[in-house]
Amino acid sequence: xxxxxxxxxxxxxxxxxxxxxxxxxxxxxxxxxxxxxxxxxxxxxxxxxxxxxxxxxxxxxxxxxxxxxxxxxxxxxxxxxxxxxxxxxxxxxxxxxxxxxxxxxxxxxxxxxxxxxxxxxxxxxxxxxxxxxxxxxxxxxxxxxxxxxxxxxxxxxxxxxxxxxxxxxxxxxxxxxxxxxxxxxxxxxxxxxxxxxxxxxxxxxxxxxxxxxxxxxxxxxxxxxxxxxxxxxxxxxxxxxxxxxxxxxxxxxxxxxxxxxxxxxxxxxxxxxxxxxxxxxxxxxxxxxxxxxxxxxxxxxxxxxxxxxxxxxxxxxxxxxxxxxxxxxxxxxxxxxxxxxxxxxxxxxxxxxxxxxxxxxxxxxxxxxxxxxxxxxxxxxxxxxxxxxxxxxxxxxx
Length: 398
Fold this sequence. Notes:
The chain is an alpha/beta fold. The chain has 2 domains: 4-168 and 285-391, 3-Layer(aba) Sandwich (Aminopeptidase), CATH 3.40.630; 170-277, Alpha-Beta Plaits, CATH 3.30.70.360. It contains 13 helices and 12 strands. The protein has helices at residues 4-17, 19-31, 40-52, 99-114, 117-120, 137-143, 195-209, 248-269, 289-301, 320-323, 346-351, 355-377, 379-391; strands spanning 56-61, 64-72, 80-85, 123-128, 152-154, 157-159, 170-179, 218-225, 236-245, 272-277, 329-330, 333-335. Helix 1 crosses helix 4, helix 2 packs antiparallel against helix 3 and helix 4 (99-114) packs across helix 12 (355-377). It is elongated, with a radius of gyration of 23 Å. The mean pLDDT is 96.
């Protein structure tokens, strides 16, 4: 009989031994933030740690030079379990999504599983997935075949709560431009066509539309060009809007209503509208309930108090959502901040280092490694994960 508790204890000990390295990776990423697909240093720091831990490391995968894959095993038959690492930051807001914590936890989980994979069987993998913040790096890696052969995968996001069966929402984006006619704003404004008025009318129409939308829908936007000079009637304005919803059906129903606001503003002002909607909206996370149940039990064994998902927790989106429909996946949340610290803020960036962040790294890494051990040594658990994956419904086109 396999000593499940002994294996988990050995994995935790390996993670604790690696803690200084994991914290160093996180702190370096926090101090030297790199943007999507430019994460050269973050890639190097993670790969160096994994290579030192005995992993076979590939730096650069397909068309993504800052992606990586590190593996140990298989010495014995068993599942390939991957821990996904994200490491890009946001312009201005830095590591305000905690990707430095995500990466360090993923590396730590891989090291923990690798310490016992000779006994559990299977393969321990750390997969470096760059460009999460708007770049869709995982989508590119999936299309290029780098998720092939993975039986289960996981990553943990820092946040306000401990939620194993977490959720994300689907999302799409539209690039908007209005074209008007320039004129002197004081001398002859009647000869102009105001493209800024068109954009503001569109925004106000969408704001009114929100009152009649399902509660899970989120619409948010920025003006990327509002004009050139105040003394000139703006003849060219641009914006970017993101629309999110819990499922593809809701998203598909909302898109035409938003588009009607964009078109109506053009008709009211006489400006010409050009807009480009994303070809394929991003999918919501297909969180695997069987795997999430194992993770929840392991997290509680570490002393964390967990709570179930709700409609609002995890109302963000990410490229894990798409690939989770092709490989059994969980993306739990791990409490790191108070409830007054929102992600994508300067405050969250500041919270992504320090004692709470380090505790989040270690507990995330341990819970993921322990869950991977459950899957590797228990064929019934792995079968339940596969069954839940198949029961989630038809898989979308890649």
